[in-house]
Amino acid sequence: MSFVWTRRPPGYIIKTGAVAARFRINFLYPTFELVETFEIDNLHITLDKLGASGYSKVSYPLRYGRYAEIKTPGHLFHFNLNGEVKFITGRGKDWPNPSEWLKSTVSGDWVYYSTGGYDGPYDCFGEYYLPCLHYASNGINSCDPFEDHAVESAIEALGPLHRKLTELSSGVLPASLGKFLDLVKSKPPAELSKKARRLSDIVGDSITVLPPDSRHVDYDLVPLIIADGCLYKCGFCRVKSRLGFRNRSRQNIDAQIAALRNFFANDLPNYNSLFLGQHDALNSDPGLLEFAAKRAFEAFDLKNSNLQDPCLFLFGSVDSIIGASFETFERIDRLSFKTYINVGLESADPQTLSGLRKGITAEGVRTAFAKIVEINRRYERIEVTSNFVFGPNLPDGHIESVLGLLGKHFDHHCPKGTVYFSPLLDADISGWKKNIKREFYKLKMKIPVPTFLYLIQRL
Ligand code: SF4
Protein backbone atom coordinates (compact mmCIF):
# COMPACT_ATOMS: atom_id res chain seq x y z
CA MET A 1 0.00 0.00 0.00
CA SER A 2 1.36 3.48 -0.74
CA PHE A 3 -0.02 7.00 -0.93
CA VAL A 4 1.03 10.57 -1.66
CA TRP A 5 0.50 12.85 1.30
CA THR A 6 2.43 16.04 0.82
CA ARG A 7 4.27 18.14 -1.71
CA ARG A 8 7.06 20.41 -0.47
CA PRO A 9 8.31 22.66 -1.95
CA PRO A 10 5.59 22.82 -4.64
CA GLY A 11 6.39 20.99 -7.82
CA TYR A 12 9.77 19.80 -6.64
CA ILE A 13 9.62 17.07 -4.08
CA ILE A 14 6.92 14.51 -3.82
CA LYS A 15 6.84 12.75 -0.53
CA THR A 16 4.98 9.48 -0.43
CA GLY A 17 4.44 6.96 2.29
CA ALA A 18 4.36 3.21 2.14
CA VAL A 19 3.36 0.84 4.87
CA ALA A 20 5.74 -2.08 5.20
CA ALA A 21 5.16 -5.22 7.18
CA ARG A 22 8.07 -6.40 9.30
CA PHE A 23 8.02 -9.96 10.54
CA ARG A 24 10.48 -9.72 13.36
CA ILE A 25 9.80 -12.50 15.81
CA ASN A 26 6.71 -14.27 14.67
CA PHE A 27 5.20 -14.54 11.21
CA LEU A 28 1.74 -14.46 12.80
CA TYR A 29 2.28 -11.02 14.35
CA PRO A 30 3.94 -8.66 11.87
CA THR A 31 4.57 -5.06 12.92
CA PHE A 32 3.56 -2.39 10.42
CA GLU A 33 5.85 0.60 10.01
CA LEU A 34 5.80 3.69 7.85
CA VAL A 35 8.48 3.98 5.18
CA GLU A 36 9.05 7.46 3.73
CA THR A 37 9.79 7.80 0.04
CA PHE A 38 10.69 10.92 -1.96
CA GLU A 39 10.94 11.72 -5.65
CA ILE A 40 13.47 14.41 -6.52
CA ASP A 41 14.20 14.91 -10.21
CA ASN A 42 15.15 11.41 -11.32
CA LEU A 43 16.05 10.19 -7.83
CA HIS A 44 13.70 7.93 -5.91
CA ILE A 45 14.73 7.97 -2.26
CA THR A 46 13.38 5.62 0.40
CA LEU A 47 14.32 6.14 4.03
CA ASP A 48 14.44 3.62 6.84
CA LYS A 49 13.79 0.53 4.77
CA LEU A 50 13.29 -2.69 6.65
CA GLY A 51 15.37 -5.64 5.65
CA ALA A 52 15.31 -9.16 7.03
CA SER A 53 15.96 -9.49 10.75
CA GLY A 54 18.07 -12.63 10.48
CA TYR A 55 20.68 -13.99 8.09
CA SER A 56 19.40 -16.58 5.63
CA LYS A 57 20.97 -18.53 2.82
CA VAL A 58 18.88 -17.58 -0.18
CA SER A 59 19.48 -17.50 -3.92
CA TYR A 60 18.18 -13.96 -4.45
CA PRO A 61 19.29 -10.52 -3.21
CA LEU A 62 18.25 -10.07 0.41
CA ARG A 63 19.09 -7.05 2.55
CA TYR A 64 19.32 -7.03 6.33
CA GLY A 65 18.56 -4.58 9.11
CA ARG A 66 17.62 -0.99 8.36
CA TYR A 67 18.93 1.09 5.49
CA ALA A 68 18.03 3.79 2.98
CA GLU A 69 17.85 3.40 -0.75
CA ILE A 70 18.35 5.74 -3.71
CA LYS A 71 17.21 4.58 -7.11
CA THR A 72 18.57 6.40 -10.16
CA PRO A 73 17.84 5.49 -13.78
CA GLY A 74 21.15 3.55 -13.88
CA HIS A 75 21.65 2.16 -10.39
CA LEU A 76 20.18 1.18 -7.06
CA PHE A 77 22.27 2.39 -4.10
CA HIS A 78 21.78 1.16 -0.55
CA PHE A 79 23.09 3.31 2.27
CA ASN A 80 23.75 2.23 5.83
CA LEU A 81 22.60 4.26 8.83
CA ASN A 82 25.80 6.33 8.71
CA GLY A 83 24.96 7.53 5.19
CA GLU A 84 27.71 5.34 3.66
CA VAL A 85 26.99 3.36 0.52
CA LYS A 86 26.86 -0.36 1.22
CA PHE A 87 25.44 -1.97 -1.93
CA ILE A 88 25.13 -0.98 -5.58
CA THR A 89 23.18 -2.85 -8.24
CA GLY A 90 23.14 -1.81 -11.88
CA ARG A 91 19.71 -1.36 -13.46
CA GLY A 92 20.81 -1.20 -17.09
CA LYS A 93 21.03 -3.96 -19.68
CA ASP A 94 24.80 -3.97 -19.41
CA TRP A 95 24.78 -5.03 -15.73
CA PRO A 96 26.16 -8.60 -15.65
CA ASN A 97 23.16 -10.10 -13.84
CA PRO A 98 20.17 -8.35 -12.16
CA SER A 99 20.56 -10.69 -9.16
CA GLU A 100 24.17 -9.66 -8.55
CA TRP A 101 25.53 -6.66 -6.69
CA LEU A 102 28.52 -4.79 -5.37
CA LYS A 103 29.11 -4.51 -1.65
CA SER A 104 31.34 -2.08 0.18
CA THR A 105 32.71 -3.82 3.27
CA VAL A 106 33.20 -2.20 6.64
CA SER A 107 36.82 -1.51 5.58
CA GLY A 108 35.72 0.08 2.31
CA ASP A 109 36.70 -2.86 0.05
CA TRP A 110 34.49 -3.52 -2.95
CA VAL A 111 33.26 -7.10 -3.27
CA TYR A 112 31.18 -8.32 -6.20
CA TYR A 113 28.55 -10.95 -5.36
CA SER A 114 28.26 -13.38 -8.24
CA THR A 115 25.63 -16.08 -8.71
CA GLY A 116 28.52 -18.20 -9.97
CA GLY A 117 27.01 -19.26 -13.30
CA TYR A 118 25.07 -22.42 -14.09
CA ASP A 119 26.22 -24.71 -11.31
CA GLY A 120 26.24 -21.96 -8.64
CA PRO A 121 28.67 -21.74 -5.74
CA TYR A 122 26.60 -23.47 -3.02
CA ASP A 123 28.21 -26.91 -3.18
CA CYS A 124 31.68 -25.37 -3.13
CA PHE A 125 31.20 -22.55 -0.62
CA GLY A 126 27.99 -23.24 1.29
CA GLU A 127 26.47 -19.96 0.05
CA TYR A 128 24.33 -19.06 -2.93
CA TYR A 129 26.60 -16.16 -3.83
CA LEU A 130 30.31 -16.14 -4.51
CA PRO A 131 32.09 -13.04 -3.18
CA CYS A 132 34.57 -11.92 -5.88
CA LEU A 133 37.36 -9.89 -4.34
CA HIS A 134 39.31 -7.13 -6.01
CA TYR A 135 42.56 -8.08 -4.24
CA ALA A 136 44.75 -11.19 -4.46
CA SER A 137 43.31 -14.14 -2.54
CA ASN A 138 42.77 -17.85 -3.11
CA GLY A 139 39.55 -17.51 -5.15
CA ILE A 140 38.95 -20.09 -7.85
CA ASN A 141 36.84 -18.04 -10.26
CA SER A 142 38.59 -17.41 -13.54
CA CYS A 143 36.80 -14.15 -14.49
CA ASP A 144 37.25 -10.80 -12.78
CA PRO A 145 33.98 -8.82 -12.52
CA PHE A 146 35.98 -5.69 -11.75
CA GLU A 147 37.13 -5.70 -15.36
CA ASP A 148 33.50 -5.36 -16.47
CA HIS A 149 32.79 -1.80 -17.58
CA ALA A 150 29.31 -1.79 -15.97
CA VAL A 151 30.77 -2.77 -12.60
CA GLU A 152 33.51 -0.18 -12.84
CA SER A 153 30.95 2.46 -13.86
CA ALA A 154 28.72 1.62 -10.89
CA ILE A 155 31.53 2.48 -8.48
CA GLU A 156 32.33 5.62 -10.47
CA ALA A 157 28.66 6.67 -10.39
CA LEU A 158 29.01 7.35 -6.68
CA GLY A 159 30.88 10.61 -7.34
CA PRO A 160 28.17 12.27 -9.50
CA LEU A 161 25.45 10.99 -7.15
CA HIS A 162 27.23 12.51 -4.16
CA ARG A 163 27.64 15.83 -6.00
CA LYS A 164 23.97 15.86 -6.91
CA LEU A 165 22.90 15.15 -3.33
CA THR A 166 25.27 17.84 -2.06
CA GLU A 167 23.59 20.38 -4.32
CA LEU A 168 20.23 19.73 -2.69
CA SER A 169 19.85 22.17 0.15
CA SER A 170 18.82 20.35 3.27
CA GLY A 171 17.29 23.60 4.60
CA VAL A 172 14.22 23.35 2.34
CA LEU A 173 13.75 19.62 2.57
CA PRO A 174 11.50 17.62 4.87
CA ALA A 175 13.41 17.04 8.12
CA SER A 176 13.93 13.28 7.74
CA LEU A 177 15.20 13.65 4.17
CA GLY A 178 17.45 16.58 5.13
CA LYS A 179 18.93 14.54 7.98
CA PHE A 180 19.67 11.62 5.67
CA LEU A 181 21.22 13.86 3.02
CA ASP A 182 23.39 15.59 5.63
CA LEU A 183 24.74 12.18 6.63
CA VAL A 184 25.43 11.17 3.02
CA LYS A 185 27.05 14.53 2.27
CA SER A 186 29.39 14.08 5.24
CA LYS A 187 30.68 10.81 3.71
CA PRO A 188 32.13 11.59 0.26
CA PRO A 189 33.19 8.49 -1.74
CA ALA A 190 36.87 9.22 -1.06
CA GLU A 191 36.19 8.52 2.63
CA LEU A 192 35.50 4.85 1.82
CA SER A 193 39.15 4.22 1.01
CA LYS A 194 40.19 5.64 4.40
CA LYS A 195 38.01 3.26 6.43
CA ALA A 196 40.53 0.39 6.45
CA ARG A 197 43.22 2.64 7.96
CA ARG A 198 40.80 4.08 10.53
CA LEU A 199 39.70 0.61 11.59
CA SER A 200 43.23 -0.78 11.85
CA ASP A 201 44.24 2.27 13.91
CA ILE A 202 41.39 1.50 16.32
CA VAL A 203 42.06 -2.23 16.76
CA GLY A 204 45.82 -1.87 16.43
CA ASP A 205 46.38 -4.13 13.40
CA SER A 206 44.93 -4.96 10.00
CA ILE A 207 42.42 -7.81 9.97
CA THR A 208 44.01 -9.72 7.09
CA VAL A 209 41.81 -12.80 7.29
CA LEU A 210 38.40 -13.67 8.68
CA PRO A 211 37.32 -17.14 9.77
CA PRO A 212 35.49 -19.01 6.98
CA ASP A 213 32.48 -19.37 9.29
CA SER A 214 31.86 -15.62 9.11
CA ARG A 215 30.14 -16.36 5.78
CA HIS A 216 27.11 -17.17 8.00
CA VAL A 217 26.71 -13.42 8.66
CA ASP A 218 27.97 -12.28 5.24
CA TYR A 219 31.28 -11.16 6.85
CA ASP A 220 29.42 -8.32 8.60
CA LEU A 221 30.99 -8.31 12.01
CA VAL A 222 32.60 -6.01 14.53
CA PRO A 223 36.30 -6.79 15.07
CA LEU A 224 37.95 -6.70 18.47
CA ILE A 225 41.53 -7.86 18.96
CA ILE A 226 42.17 -9.60 22.25
CA ALA A 227 45.56 -11.13 21.38
CA ASP A 228 48.05 -10.34 18.63
CA GLY A 229 49.90 -12.71 16.37
CA CYS A 230 49.88 -16.48 16.24
CA LEU A 231 51.91 -19.39 17.54
CA TYR A 232 53.56 -20.83 14.44
CA LYS A 233 54.45 -18.24 11.77
CA CYS A 234 54.04 -20.93 9.11
CA GLY A 235 56.14 -20.73 5.98
CA PHE A 236 53.21 -21.08 3.56
CA CYS A 237 50.98 -18.43 5.18
CA ARG A 238 50.44 -15.08 3.48
CA VAL A 239 48.15 -13.52 6.06
CA LYS A 240 50.20 -13.87 9.22
CA SER A 241 50.78 -10.89 11.46
CA ARG A 242 54.32 -9.63 11.98
CA LEU A 243 53.60 -9.61 15.72
CA GLY A 244 54.38 -12.44 18.13
CA PHE A 245 51.56 -13.90 20.23
CA ARG A 246 50.60 -11.57 23.07
CA ASN A 247 47.40 -10.96 25.03
CA ARG A 248 46.00 -7.43 24.94
CA SER A 249 45.22 -5.79 28.27
CA ARG A 250 41.64 -5.25 29.49
CA GLN A 251 42.22 -1.49 29.23
CA ASN A 252 43.20 -1.88 25.59
CA ILE A 253 40.07 -3.93 24.91
CA ASP A 254 37.88 -1.30 26.59
CA ALA A 255 39.56 1.45 24.54
CA GLN A 256 38.95 -0.50 21.31
CA ILE A 257 35.29 -1.00 22.24
CA ALA A 258 34.78 2.72 22.91
CA ALA A 259 36.44 3.68 19.60
CA LEU A 260 34.54 0.98 17.69
CA ARG A 261 31.26 2.38 18.97
CA ASN A 262 32.20 5.72 17.41
CA PHE A 263 33.38 4.07 14.20
CA PHE A 264 30.21 2.00 13.67
CA ALA A 265 28.08 4.83 15.13
CA ASN A 266 24.46 4.89 13.88
CA ASP A 267 24.92 1.65 11.94
CA LEU A 268 25.92 -0.43 14.97
CA PRO A 269 22.35 -1.78 15.41
CA ASN A 270 22.75 -3.42 12.00
CA TYR A 271 25.43 -5.74 13.41
CA ASN A 272 24.87 -8.77 15.58
CA SER A 273 28.25 -10.49 15.43
CA LEU A 274 31.73 -10.14 16.81
CA PHE A 275 35.13 -11.35 15.60
CA LEU A 276 37.66 -11.78 18.38
CA GLY A 277 41.06 -11.44 16.73
CA GLN A 278 43.62 -11.97 15.82
CA HIS A 279 44.91 -15.35 14.58
CA ASP A 280 44.49 -17.41 17.75
CA ALA A 281 42.10 -15.79 20.22
CA LEU A 282 41.50 -19.23 21.75
CA ASN A 283 45.10 -19.16 22.96
CA SER A 284 44.44 -16.02 24.99
CA ASP A 285 43.66 -16.09 28.68
CA PRO A 286 40.14 -17.63 29.01
CA GLY A 287 39.11 -14.87 31.45
CA LEU A 288 40.17 -12.25 28.90
CA LEU A 289 38.19 -13.94 26.13
CA GLU A 290 35.08 -14.06 28.29
CA PHE A 291 35.61 -10.45 29.45
CA ALA A 292 35.92 -9.18 25.86
CA ALA A 293 32.90 -11.10 24.56
CA LYS A 294 30.66 -9.95 27.45
CA ARG A 295 31.91 -6.38 27.39
CA ALA A 296 31.35 -6.08 23.63
CA PHE A 297 27.91 -7.67 23.82
CA GLU A 298 26.84 -5.05 26.37
CA ALA A 299 28.61 -2.03 24.88
CA PHE A 300 27.41 -2.73 21.32
CA ASP A 301 23.92 -3.48 22.66
CA LEU A 302 23.76 -6.65 20.57
CA LYS A 303 20.72 -7.78 22.54
CA ASN A 304 18.75 -5.06 20.76
CA SER A 305 20.39 -5.45 17.35
CA ASN A 306 18.18 -5.24 14.27
CA LEU A 307 19.40 -8.77 13.60
CA GLN A 308 18.67 -11.82 15.68
CA ASP A 309 20.98 -14.67 16.71
CA PRO A 310 24.30 -13.02 17.61
CA CYS A 311 27.41 -14.95 16.60
CA LEU A 312 30.97 -14.92 17.87
CA PHE A 313 33.84 -15.91 15.56
CA LEU A 314 37.44 -16.66 16.45
CA PHE A 315 40.42 -18.68 15.36
CA GLY A 316 42.04 -21.42 17.39
CA SER A 317 45.10 -23.57 16.73
CA VAL A 318 46.25 -27.13 17.35
CA ASP A 319 47.98 -26.12 20.58
CA SER A 320 45.22 -23.82 21.84
CA ILE A 321 42.47 -26.36 21.24
CA ILE A 322 44.49 -29.07 23.00
CA GLY A 323 45.51 -26.70 25.80
CA ALA A 324 42.07 -25.20 26.51
CA SER A 325 40.21 -26.90 29.34
CA PHE A 326 36.62 -28.04 29.00
CA GLU A 327 35.81 -25.41 31.62
CA THR A 328 36.88 -22.78 29.05
CA PHE A 329 34.41 -24.18 26.52
CA GLU A 330 31.69 -24.27 29.18
CA ARG A 331 32.28 -20.54 29.73
CA ILE A 332 32.14 -19.90 25.98
CA ASP A 333 28.98 -21.99 25.69
CA ARG A 334 27.29 -19.80 28.33
CA LEU A 335 27.94 -16.55 26.40
CA SER A 336 25.06 -14.79 24.67
CA PHE A 337 26.52 -15.77 21.29
CA LYS A 338 26.58 -18.87 19.17
CA THR A 339 30.33 -19.36 18.83
CA TYR A 340 32.31 -20.59 15.83
CA ILE A 341 35.97 -21.48 16.39
CA ASN A 342 38.01 -22.18 13.29
CA VAL A 343 41.20 -24.23 13.64
CA GLY A 344 43.92 -24.53 10.98
CA LEU A 345 44.93 -28.21 11.05
CA GLU A 346 46.26 -28.15 7.45
CA SER A 347 47.09 -31.88 7.21
CA ALA A 348 47.64 -35.02 9.23
CA ASP A 349 50.55 -36.03 7.01
CA PRO A 350 54.07 -35.34 8.44
CA GLN A 351 55.59 -34.73 5.01
CA THR A 352 52.89 -32.17 4.13
CA LEU A 353 53.24 -30.36 7.45
CA SER A 354 56.96 -30.20 7.00
CA GLY A 355 56.57 -28.82 3.45
CA LEU A 356 54.21 -26.14 4.76
CA ARG A 357 56.77 -25.22 7.42
CA LYS A 358 54.07 -25.40 10.08
CA GLY A 359 55.44 -26.11 13.54
CA ILE A 360 52.98 -28.83 14.51
CA THR A 361 53.11 -32.63 14.36
CA ALA A 362 50.72 -35.09 12.77
CA GLU A 363 50.16 -36.52 16.22
CA GLY A 364 49.20 -33.05 17.50
CA VAL A 365 46.72 -32.71 14.61
CA ARG A 366 45.12 -36.08 15.47
CA THR A 367 44.84 -35.12 19.16
CA ALA A 368 43.38 -31.69 18.28
CA PHE A 369 40.85 -33.21 15.90
CA ALA A 370 39.67 -35.72 18.53
CA LYS A 371 39.14 -32.77 20.91
CA ILE A 372 37.26 -30.82 18.19
CA VAL A 373 34.89 -33.75 17.68
CA GLU A 374 34.30 -33.96 21.43
CA ILE A 375 33.64 -30.20 21.80
CA ASN A 376 31.16 -30.30 18.92
CA ARG A 377 29.43 -33.24 20.57
CA ARG A 378 29.27 -31.65 24.05
CA TYR A 379 28.35 -28.02 23.40
CA GLU A 380 25.23 -27.06 21.53
CA ARG A 381 26.20 -23.39 21.05
CA ILE A 382 29.78 -23.98 19.95
CA GLU A 383 30.87 -25.26 16.56
CA VAL A 384 34.55 -25.89 15.98
CA THR A 385 35.46 -26.09 12.31
CA SER A 386 38.71 -27.28 10.72
CA ASN A 387 40.84 -26.16 7.78
CA PHE A 388 43.00 -28.35 5.60
CA VAL A 389 45.13 -27.25 2.67
CA PHE A 390 44.16 -28.16 -0.88
CA GLY A 391 46.46 -28.05 -3.88
CA PRO A 392 47.92 -29.97 -6.80
CA ASN A 393 51.51 -30.22 -5.59
CA LEU A 394 51.00 -31.64 -2.11
CA PRO A 395 52.44 -35.05 -1.14
CA ASP A 396 50.29 -38.11 -1.94
CA GLY A 397 49.85 -38.79 1.76
CA HIS A 398 48.01 -35.52 2.41
CA ILE A 399 44.46 -36.29 1.27
CA GLU A 400 44.84 -39.88 2.47
CA SER A 401 45.75 -38.56 5.94
CA VAL A 402 42.75 -36.21 6.05
CA LEU A 403 40.31 -38.92 4.96
CA GLY A 404 41.87 -41.30 7.50
CA LEU A 405 41.41 -38.74 10.27
CA LEU A 406 37.77 -38.14 9.39
CA GLY A 407 37.04 -41.83 8.84
CA LYS A 408 38.31 -42.63 12.32
CA HIS A 409 35.73 -40.35 13.94
CA PHE A 410 32.67 -40.58 11.71
CA ASP A 411 30.92 -43.64 10.37
CA HIS A 412 27.80 -41.74 9.29
CA HIS A 413 26.80 -38.22 8.28
CA CYS A 414 27.18 -35.53 10.96
CA PRO A 415 25.81 -32.01 10.32
CA LYS A 416 28.23 -30.26 12.70
CA GLY A 417 31.97 -29.63 12.54
CA THR A 418 32.38 -28.22 9.04
CA VAL A 419 35.63 -28.99 7.27
CA TYR A 420 37.12 -26.36 4.94
CA PHE A 421 39.73 -26.93 2.27
CA SER A 422 41.85 -23.91 1.53
CA PRO A 423 43.26 -23.70 -2.02
CA LEU A 424 46.93 -22.84 -1.63
CA LEU A 425 47.87 -19.39 -2.84
CA ASP A 426 51.34 -20.08 -4.06
CA ALA A 427 50.75 -23.28 -6.00
CA ASP A 428 51.26 -23.30 -9.75
CA ILE A 429 47.60 -23.88 -10.37
CA SER A 430 46.98 -22.52 -13.85
CA GLY A 431 45.93 -25.97 -15.13
CA TRP A 432 44.62 -27.29 -11.84
CA LYS A 433 42.41 -24.24 -11.28
CA LYS A 434 40.17 -25.40 -14.12
CA ASN A 435 39.73 -28.78 -12.42
CA ILE A 436 39.55 -27.59 -8.85
CA LYS A 437 35.77 -27.93 -8.54
CA ARG A 438 35.82 -31.45 -9.95
CA GLU A 439 38.68 -32.44 -7.63
CA PHE A 440 36.90 -30.86 -4.69
CA TYR A 441 33.57 -32.61 -5.40
CA LYS A 442 35.33 -35.98 -5.60
CA LEU A 443 36.78 -35.31 -2.17
CA LYS A 444 33.61 -33.86 -0.68
CA MET A 445 31.66 -37.01 -1.57
CA LYS A 446 33.94 -39.02 0.71
CA ILE A 447 33.55 -36.74 3.76
CA PRO A 448 30.64 -37.23 6.17
CA VAL A 449 30.54 -33.66 7.56
CA PRO A 450 29.70 -30.39 5.72
CA THR A 451 32.69 -29.67 3.50
CA PHE A 452 33.44 -26.43 1.64
CA LEU A 453 36.27 -24.44 0.10
CA TYR A 454 37.74 -21.63 2.21
CA LEU A 455 37.77 -18.32 0.38
CA ILE A 456 40.24 -16.15 2.27
CA GLN A 457 38.67 -12.74 2.81
CA ARG A 458 39.94 -9.81 4.84
CA LEU A 459 37.70 -7.54 6.86
S1 SF4 B 1 48.45 -20.24 9.12
FE1 SF4 B 1 47.72 -19.38 11.06
S2 SF4 B 1 49.23 -20.06 12.55
FE2 SF4 B 1 50.21 -20.26 10.53
S3 SF4 B 1 51.26 -18.30 10.22
FE3 SF4 B 1 49.24 -18.11 9.28
S4 SF4 B 1 48.02 -17.16 10.89
FE4 SF4 B 1 49.84 -18.00 11.88
Summarize the structure.
With 459 residues, this protein is α/β, with parallel strands linked by helices. It has 2 domains: 181 residues, no CATH class; 250 residues, TIM Barrel (Alpha-Beta Barrel).
Describe this structure in words.
The chain has two domains: 2-182, no CATH class; 204-453, TIM Barrel. It is 29% helix and 24% strand. The protein has helices spanning 122-125, 149-156, 158-167, 175-185, 195-203, 250-264, 286-299, 318-323, 326-333, 350-356, 362-378, 397-409, 432-444, and strands at residues 2-7, 13-22, 31-40, 43-50, 66-71, 75-79, 85-90, 101-104, 110-114, 130-133, 222-225, 227-228, 246-247, 273-277, 311-316, 338-346, 382-390, 419-423, 451-453. Helix 3 (158-167) crosses helix 4 and helix 6 runs parallel beside helix 7 (286-299). The two termini are 39 Å apart. Iron/sulfur cluster is lined by residues 230, 232-234, 237, 239-240, 279, 317, 344.
